[in-house]
Every structure is written in C-alpha cells, then in structure tokens.
Specification:
The protein is of the alpha+beta class. It has 15 helices and 29 strands. It has a 7-stranded mixed β-sheet with strand order 4-5-25-26-27-28-29. Strands 7, 10, 11, 12, 15, 20 and 21 form a 7-stranded antiparallel β-sheet that branches. A 5-stranded mixed β-sheet has the order 1-2-3-24-6, with no helix packed on it. The protein is elongated. Residues about 1-15, about 65-70, about 365-380 and about 605-629 have low confidence and may be disordered.
C-alpha cells in the first residue's frame, strides 16, 4: 500500500480541534479519504445503560465522520454562550463553553457544554423564515428541534414525506428570539453607574466593580450620573437595568427578581422594563416595609431577553444552567432554496446540540448514518477517519487497572475494526493480545477479510479467554453486491473467511444484514444464501430487514431511484412510519426466514430478529446495522 502526502498540517484537511493529532495521511488507495493519526487517551468505551445489547464495553481503534449532515448553518448565526451572551457561529472557537440541552423530546433543560470541533464547507443553502421575522440560512440536512421531535430543513430526495422536515406552521422549540446586546454608549454607562452605585456600590460584586471602574473616567469629577433623568433614553435605561440587577437582582428557580429599598430606583426599574415590553409583577416585602420586589414574568425566554437587552456584568447571575425550555415556540413561515451555495458552518458539542438564534439545533455529534466505514473509492470524498495509533498500548494500561472486572468487550459495534486500513495500521493484533492477557472475553463483528490475518492469533488466545466472531454477509449476487457495497470484500471472500474461522476452531456466526425488501428477500434467494453459509460452517445466522436512519435513507433512496425506480413507491409504503420497515413485513419475513434457518441448522437462540440482530451474549450483537452506501 502506498501512502503519500503525509504531513501534520500545511493545508492537509484535518478534524478541527482534534486532540492528540500526530499527522494527517492521504493515499491513492483510498481516494478522497484523510486518515488522522492520533494519540488517544482512552479506547475502552462503556456502553450506555439501557442500550439493550448483550455486552457492556467496546473498543474502536478507528472513528469516522459521516458526510450525511455535516455542514449546517450560515456563519452569522448567533449561538448562545454559557454566560447568556451570543456569538456568531463562524467566530466560535474550539473549547468555548456554550449551552446545549439535556432531556427528551420538547422537554429539555439548558446545560453548559463545550465546542469540540468547528469547521466549514460550501453547501446548497436554504432560507428558513419564522413568523416573528427571524431568518436563518441552513443546509437542507440541518435539523431543528420541533414540538414533534427533530426535523430536517428539507425533505429528502426519496420522497418529500420520507424524513421528518420543516413545513410552514411547524413549531420550533427554543428559548425565544435573541436580542442584540446594547452598545456601551455614554448613556448606557451613566445608567449602569446610577443603577449599580445606588444599589450597593463597589463592595458586593467584583465583576460589577470592575465595569464601574472602567466607566468612571468618562465622567471626570462629576457625579451627576447618580441622578435618575426625568426622561431617560433607551441607552440609559438598558444600562440602568444591568446596574440594578448586578447588585440587587438574581435568577433562580426559574424566576428573575430585583428587590430595592429606594422607591425612586424601583420605579425607574419598572419604567425601564415597561419600555422594552417586559411583563412584570411588583410586590411589597412584609418583613421590610420600604422594600419592593419586582419579578419578571414570561419564563426563561424573557429572562434571556432581559440579559440581552441589558447585558449585566456579574457572571454567576447570568447562568441559566438547568433552566427548563420548551414553552417558547416559534412557527415556521417559509422554507426557500436560495439557489446558490454558501459557506456553511458546523460544530460538535458534548451534548450533541446547541442553541442557534434561539432555537435548539442539532449538530453532527450524534449521527448514526455511516458507522461502518468501507472507504468506497471516489465516493466518500469528504470522509475523515480517526486512527488511534496508540490504541493497543492505551488499552493494555486501562485493562491493568484494579477496577477492571474482565467484562465482555465487543469490537465492530461502531466502526469495522478490520476495514481495509487495518491492513496498514495493524492495530488489532495488539488489542487482541491486550484483552487476552488481561483475561477479558472478546468478540469481533466485521465484513473485512483482513480478519483472516489474525485467525492464528485468535485461535491461540481462545485457549485462555472466550472468543467469538461474526461476519456480515447480506447477499450472494456479486453484481448487486458491487452496486450496493463497492469497495468491500465480495460475498465469496467473506464466505471463505467464515470457513477459515471455523477451520481454526472459532465460533463464527453470520449476520444476513440487511435483507432488502423485494431484492434479496425471496425464499429462493434466502435459501441459496443459507445453504452457502451452512456449507461454510457458520455457527448460526441472524437475519434482519433493512432499516433506514436519517442520512442512510437519503443515500439509499437516491440509489434505489436510479437502479430500481419501480420499487420506490413500494419502499415509500414500507418505510412510511420511520426508520424501520412496517411490522407486517417484518412478521412475514420472520415466517419465511425461520423455517429456512432450521432446515439448514443455522437457527440462533433468538431466531429471526425483526428489528435488529439479537445474537447470544457470547457472540456479541452489533449496535448498528452495517451500512450499504
């Protein structure tokens, strides 16, 4: 294998902010693929509780990014920072703290998160106009949180109804419209000093004191700013709101309130709120007869608007951590193609989302579209693959910790560990050895025939720890396989891999995944495939129907429309309800598959898997379906 253009920068495309980057590598063997070699700090990953898979840990020496919905929003889009302020998406830096969300559906809370990556490209642009006049420019694949879940900006090319997408009238979930931050004019500064100094002065809050000290030289020896003007302008009132809030206000339990003993200051604060359209409530405080409490009404959206209109200085009072959102909903008025390509930006965050122009916006972190990378030459031109070149050494160190309980580790559940690049990097022998030496049971799922290289090693370590293998073989038709999975080993090569594994005395099951409706699901096709698998010595077989997650759906739909246009209406009907095929089809397929598996002696303990693979725990079911495109 020839590897050229090896460098750690100098124009080489790289994943922005990628920690531990050693160098980026391109090769003519993988047209358009860039391998980012990194020194990882951890490679042993805990599977989230409730995942429903029969293993608790995974190791993935390779990690890749999808090209299904990578680039999202126009660079001027304002993003909500963790201090309540906003910043243009194009200006964000890796490591900056912003707000994401936690929760389910439309019921969410704001939580701080960090920007993990930030990049841009050219994409077809669409204008999303809301009923309040807000306009955003985004790519068609971008997703916003709506009252009915995540929705793309546009419908897919595989029928407009085939993925959730925005339409006029769609309700977007968020925190309300962002307001511009005030300019620090002389009037604003005078208002801030008046509100701050007449609410407690310099001793209480260091952030407020620092701002005041910066403003005072503008007024020389004059103290006229301590007086409330008879007819204050908007600049003065914005600063006044900030100054009073910094010293006499606070936010907690969903309420923003200010308490003040001076009637003149309380009245001026109420007048300023009214000027900017804030609903509020004025209460007496029984324990303090001269004190008045002013509470802002309208929820977190109005709290955020107050922070933007006034721009207080005290950092901890600006925190919205844990604030419940969802009450503020804004309707889509129109979605229009701009008819041109624009530079669009995306970020990766720790929560998988962020708040853009007041709306909860999805980022690329949680994509499940292309988990299994086969590097199809000439097609995956923007694929970025992370290679954890120190994975064996890091894993060995992690397995030596006293806390490690030698639980089953599954490999191939996220990215294929025996993809073609493994022939170059040879990471798996060290990983297998580390697991075996620690007494850890292991399993491998792959469609890559590079696995044959390590069969002697696996045979050897199987004497000490349980080892099981699974190979993905979806069909026998060489022509169809080449059209669906270009660049991957042929069915014949994978059958030979199963045979070699069994001859080595290793258990090797097969995933017939996915079964394609009306293409590979006939009794004749399945019977022929199962016969070949039985002849190769497969330990068992699990079959499940194609499911089409967002992103994979669009790729497959485009391929189907070009190769088998007559099937498009039938697929629309089968997948009308989402990613999974209709229940009726799954049941029919189960009735067809079950007897065939039993006839060939291939039935696993769980039989046919109607929603996904359900292999016995010793044979490690995958989390994701192996991709077709």
């Amino acid at each position: 294998m020839r590897w050229d253009r090896q460098r750690a920068g100098e124009g080489e495309p790289a994943l922005p902010g990628l920690e531990g980057l050693v160098r980026s590598v391109r090769s003519p063997e993988f047209d358009g693929v860039t391998f980012h070699e990194v020194h990882a700090r951890s490679v042993l990953n805990k599977v989230p509780a409730g995942s429903g898979v029969p293993f608790g840990w995974t190791v993935n020496p390779y990690r890749g990014c999808s090209h299904a919905c990578t680039y999202c929003l126009e660079g001027g889009t304002r993003i909500l920072l963790a201090d309540g302020r906003t910043k243009a998406l194009a200006e964000l830096k890796v490591g900056e703290e912003i707000y994401g969300t936690r929760g389910h559906g439309a019921s969410r809370r704001l939580v701080p998160t960090r920007v993990l990556a930030h990049w841009t490209t050219l994409r077809d642009a669409y204008r999303v106009t809301l009923e309040d006049g807000t306009r955003l420019v985004a790519g068609g694949d971008h997703r916003f949180l709506t009252a009915k879940g995540w929705k793309h900006v546009t419908g897919s090319k595989f029928g407009a109804a085939q993925r959730p997408h925005l339409e006029p009238g769609t309700e977007l979930i968020g925190v309300g419209r962002f307001e511009p931050t005030p300019d620090e004019t002389l009037g604003y500064r005078a208002g801030y000093l008046c509100g701050m100094l007449r609410s407690g002065g310099f001793a209480a809050e260091t952030d407020a004191a620092a701002r005041a000290l910066g403003y005072l030289p503008d007024f020389g020896a004059s103290v006229a700013f301590l007086q409330v003007p008879a007819e204050p302008d908007a600049h003065w009132q914005r600063g006044f709101l900030a100054g009073v809030f910094d010293l006499a206000g606070g936010y907690g339990r969903g309420q923003l309130a200010v308490a003040h003993d001076e009637p003149e200051i309380a009245d001026a604060f109420v007048a300023a709120l009214a000027r900017f359209g804030f609903a509020h409530q004025l209460d007496e405080v029984p324990k303090f007869p001269t004190r008045q409490e002013i509470r802002l009404l309208g929820g977190v959206g109005e709290v955020l608007r107050f922070l933007h209109v006034s721009n207080p200085a005290v950092g901890w009072k600006r925190s919205l951590d844990g604030a419940v959102i969802g009450a503020s909903r804004r309707r889509v008025a129109a979605i229009e193609p701009l008819g041109l390509q624009l530079p669009l930006y995306d970020i990766t965050t720790g929560t998988g989302d962020f708040v853009a122009d007041g709306m909860v916006s999805h980022n690329c972190f949680a994509r499940n579209t292309h988990t299994y990378l086969d590097f199809d030459a000439g097609r995956d031109f923007d694929t970025q693959v992370v290679v954890k070149i120190n994975a064996p050494q890091v894993l060995a160190a992690q397995l030596k910790k006293p806390s490690w309980r030698r639980e089953h580790v599954a490999m191939g559940t996220n990215t294929d560990p025996y993809q073609r690049a493994e022939g170059r990097y040879r990471l798996m022998p060290g990983i297998i050895t580390a697991l075996a030496r620690s007494g850890t049971p292991l399993s491998v799922l792959t469609k890559g025939t590079v696995l044959a290289r390590d069969l002697p090693l696996l045979q050897d370590v199987a004497r000490d720890v349980p080892v099981s293998l699974a190979v993905s073989i979806a069909l026998l038709d060489d022509e169809l396989q080449h059209r669906l999975e270009p660049g991957t080993p042929s069915p014949r090569a994978r059958l030979e891999l199963v045979r070699k594994a069994r001859e080595a005395g290793l258990p090797c099951s097969v995933l017939v995944a996915p079964v394609l409706p009306y293409l590979t699901d006939s009794p004749e096709a399945l019977d022929a495939l199962f016969a070949r698998l039985a002849d190769a010595g497969a330990s068992s077989v699990t079959a499940f129907a194609l499911h089409l997650r967002p992103g994979a759906r669009e790729w497959f739909g485009r391929w189907l429309a070009g190769a088998y246009p007559a099937l498009v209406p039938r697929y629309r009907e089968l997948y009308a309800r989402g990613s999974y095929v209709r229940k009726e089809y799954r049941e029919q397929l189960a009735e067809r598959v079950g007897p065939l598996l039993r006839r060939h002696g291939l039935a696993p303990q769980a039989g046919f898997a109607s929603r996904g693979p359900q292999l016995p725990a010793a044979e490690a079911a995958p989390v994701e379906q192996l991709r077709l495109l």
